[in-house]
Structure formats: structure tokens, C-alpha cells
Write a structure and sequence with these properties.
With 427 residues, the chain is of the alpha/beta class. It is built from 19 helices and 15 strands.
Amino acid sequence: MNVLRADTFPAEAVRERARAGTAAAFPPLGEYGRTLFGAERPHETDELDAARLVPPVFVPRRLEKLIELAREPVYRDVVLDTEIGGFRSPLPVYLSAFGSTQVASVDLGVAASAQAGRLGIPMVVGENVVPVDGYRRVGGAAGARSLLGRITAYADALPDRFGGLVVQQSTEDADAEVWNLVYSDPSARSLLESGRLGFELKVGQGAKPGLGGMTVLDAPAAARLGDAFDVDAVFGPGADRQLRCASPGTFTEEVLRQQIRLMRNNFPRARVWVKLPPGRDVGLAASVAWEAGTDAVTVDGAEGGTGWAPMSFLDHVGLPLAECLRRVGEPAGCLLASGRMWEGTRAVKSLALGARAVGLGRAALIAVDTDAGRGLANLVECLALEMRLLISALGKYTPADLGVDDVWRSAAQVREPVAEPMGGVRG
């Protein structure tokens, strides 16, 4: 299955990692000793990709590790275990949200849930799954694709102590009372009692900042849902497909504070996450969320997404992830970053610039599409190897030790933090 346009994401590189695992971190073995690698570099326009990791000459942390181990440390001594928004994870990676998008509504969403569970990494179940696929459908593929089907696939595979399931809620999900359904369901009790259940308030996403979810419906579905949702015949009169749009929601500083307080009061045993779009005031929004007591803030850069979005938004709307991280600055809490994550260098740069962990979205779907049994596991294993190699090269041995000094950016990229308005419209 071709899950996205080939020119917007390195899909074939991800597929190779899903097939080969850690071997994909290196040039082809058959070319060893016969080919000069790295002679040509592609034109780089993404600020995060254009930045470089810069190991130091003097490595006092390595000396500390040498004394601790009583031997010279190597990359395998890097410890990737971390806490992500209140959940323990074997590495600073989580499965990012993809909800009712067409590619996730087939078996890929369930396969990804099962593989993420076996890996023990946290997983976010995206928006609109209940309105599109239902909460508890019984039997067959439809039952597996339902929200409960994804929850069960993840929870059944989860090892002790690791991982955590985070259920995202949009405006449509709120109307369906998705969080209430999950919080009170006996099927989710093991996650709740083990402290591995969370809810994510979706303020926006990178693929279409300022817009809500969009789904293409066939004519019968459009007629059936026309009274409940905004349906628009944008593809022309008489077309057999129509566009269904969701409200993006209305947020001010005070509305966001109140939403987080309500989440904490109504679901006291669940972790609280907030997902922010790549807006110009993303730094202020993150500060408001942390001050209100959220366990994690996810910043989703304008690097596209798995769902349906207008081309004008994919190409021209929203801040790139590097700029989002710059505007957030020194995080006041757990900061998570997503946007074209699939390999170690981009992940380690994001960690050095303040993120606690990075989210796999499109890359996870491609990996699962390549191999429904082990594709995601192979991809994550390769990512973990690269992260250990890179962090060790920086003379450090945990992701928490990384900092902005580990990243070099050109003079054109280094700017003063943006001064954001502290007043503005309040709810």
C-alpha cells in the first residue's frame, strides 16, 4: 500500500529500515571498500535537517562513565530509558497519533498498536476513531479498527512497567464522550490501575494548523452524516465523494487552562497531555499548558501528516519543527516533538533542543505496511542504535545529558527567541 506521496517523505528509506532493522543504519555491506559514500549531499532546506551534531574534543562525561564502569565506555553503554509524560519507556520514542485517516483505518492501525505494545513505548490513539470506526464493534475487521480494538491490541502486548496508552480527543470526540467511555470501561482497567492511561487534548496538528479533521466520504455516508457534521461537495456537483470537516475548536489562554483543570478533576487517575499545532504563539501555549498542570506538551511541526489536508496547508501553513522548538525555548515540563521523525540524527537534534521524546507517525505506518509483524520493531531498533551511536559520540550517556551546545546551526539559523504577546484575547 502506498500510504503517502513519495516526494514528501523518505518512504523507501523507512521501508528499508522496516525490512533490515539495524543493518539499515550503515551503507550497503556489499559496497564496503568499493564506494565513496557521502560525496554528494542533497540540497537541504529544513532547518532541523540542515543543523549538525557537533561532538566535543574534551569529554568529561565520558571520563565519569569510564570511572563508573572501570573501562572505556562504548555506545552500547548509552542508557535510553526515559519517562515520557508520566510513562516509562525503553527509549525516548512514542507512537504519535493517527486516528481515522484512511490508511490507519485498515489493518495498519491495529498492527501498529500491537507492535508498539510489544516494544513497550507509549502510544497515542488519534482523534475521530469513535465517530468513524466506533468505540466497541464486535467481530471482523470493523471490530478490530474500533477504538477498543486498538486499545486491546496495545494493552494485550504490553510488558510490565513500560508503556502507556494516551487517547486523543477532538471536538467531535468530545461530543461522543470518548474519554468517559475509556475511563469507565473495564477493558481499560488494567491500564488505569497500573498508571498507564492518559488523555490528550488536541488543540491542533501540524498537517493543517487552524483547521479541524477532514475526511472524504462516499455519497451514502455523506447523506447519513450530513445532519451531524459539516459536509461540503467540494469535488463538484454529482461527485461520488464529499468532504467532511470537523471544528478545530476555540481556544484562548483561559479556555486551555480550564480544559486541563477539567481533565484533572474528571479523570484524576489519567495522565494529561496537550497537543499543540505549529502556531506562532506555540511557546506561550506550551507555558500555559505546563502552568495548568499538564504532564506533557506535544509540539507537532508543519511537516505534514497521515490524514487528509489541503495542499496549500501542507506546503505553506505553520512553523517547521525547528522553529517551534526555538520558540518554546527551555521547556518548563515534558516536551514531545513530532514531524518527519524516522531516523536518529533528527531525533537526537530534537532531544538536544529540548524535547524529552520524539513521535513516530507516518514512519510507523510505512513500517507496519512493509511488515505487519515486525516492521515497526525493526524501525525502532535501527533508530535506537543510531541514537546510542550519536549520543555516545557527543560524549554523553543519557538523552537527558544532551543540550543546545551539541547542535550547530548556521548564523542565518541562530536568532533571538521570539517575543510573544503576554496579553492577547482571553476567554
